[in-house]
Fold:
Amino acid sequence: MNENYEHAVEVEPRIGLARYSARERAVRNPRIFASGDLKLLLLELIGEQPRHGYDLIQQIEGFFDGAYSPSPGVIYPALAFLESGQLVELT
Structure:
């Protein structure tokens, strides 16, 4: 087994969950958007028509033919950031 891989994964003994290093997560789930690109895409989609978070997730998933679907943990913080900057507003 690769020595680096052995150190990249730790198993939490109490619950049996693996914790992966940032490098291991990047290999398993490559970053789709560069920093800020998702926010720009969200602004573009919302600019076309008002949308809620789930609709945005489905729209982006459609762009990738189902191969990528952004998680709510990515979409909703990005929307909160846009709202805090008064770039979008809740209705």
